């Protein structure tokens, strides 16, 4: 039988309970790496369709192989992109570049079956394992949006108040680009992050932030962010190879 969403992977309920999450971010497009990452005890895995190398078959394989909860960062905020990601059996979606409450509400609607939303029912994994079982488990699907622009920061309070939204994650890279050309863009970006975190706290909504290292993830966690990126596949592989080459070359120096 094609695996469905096990009850112990109900990401939405765990987020609502205030559990902090260390995310592993996967962009290379390898289901084998996803399986390995899922076996390390990762609290959740993000499969990045927006900037990553994933195709649909690789996505389906990765979701089926990893034992950790899976979030899919979709390419765009459309019913097709969100529905296709959730048809894989993933535990949730992460929608990029959301700037208004209306856009956040659209993401929620695209992620929920009627009457709560407008998601279409289907998919090889749901139908292969029994759609009734999948439908019953769909309440556990988490819906997150990314605030990554100055306009999104300005509307953070309204976005955080959208019914059915489960978390917000700050995209620090694009947010920095949004403030480029202003006076002290780094300070503006940090102020923007703080504003989003405050808006989430006021709405009792988990707030996450993209980080590049485990040390940065720990530091952000102490600031109150509920989701941080502990590792990403590109850096883990690059630093692992570099460390091995350096260790091998050390005797020759």
Key structural traits:
single chain; 253 residues; alpha/beta; TIM Barrel; 8-stranded parallel β-barrel; Pyrv_kinase-like_dom_sf
Kindly describe this structure.
With 253 residues, this protein is α/β, with parallel strands linked by helices. It has a single domain, classed as Phosphoenolpyruvate-binding domains (TIM Barrel, Alpha-Beta Barrel), CATH 3.20.20.60. It has an eight-stranded parallel barrel with strand order 1-2-3-4-5-6-7-8, surrounded by seven helices. The protein has helices at residues 11-16, 31-38, 56-65, 79-86, 101-111, 124-129, 131-137, 150-154, 156-160, 172-178, 185-203, 214-222, 233-249, and strands at 21-26, 44-48, 70-73, 92-95, 142-147, 167-170, 207-209, 227-232. Residues 1-8 have low confidence and may be disordered. Helix content is 47%, strand content 15%. Pfam families: HpcH_HpaI (PF03328). One of its GO terms (cellular component) is cytoplasm.
Number of domains: 1
Report the CATH architecture.
Alpha-Beta Barrel
Flag low-confidence runs.
Answer: 1-8
Q: What is the 3D form?
A: globular
CATH class category label: Alpha Beta
What percent of residues are in strands?
A: 15-25%
The secondary-structure class comes to: alpha/beta
Distance between the termini: 56 Å
Mind telling me the C-alpha Rg?
A: 18 Å
Average pLDDT value?
Answer: 93
Q: Report the count of strand segments.
A: 8
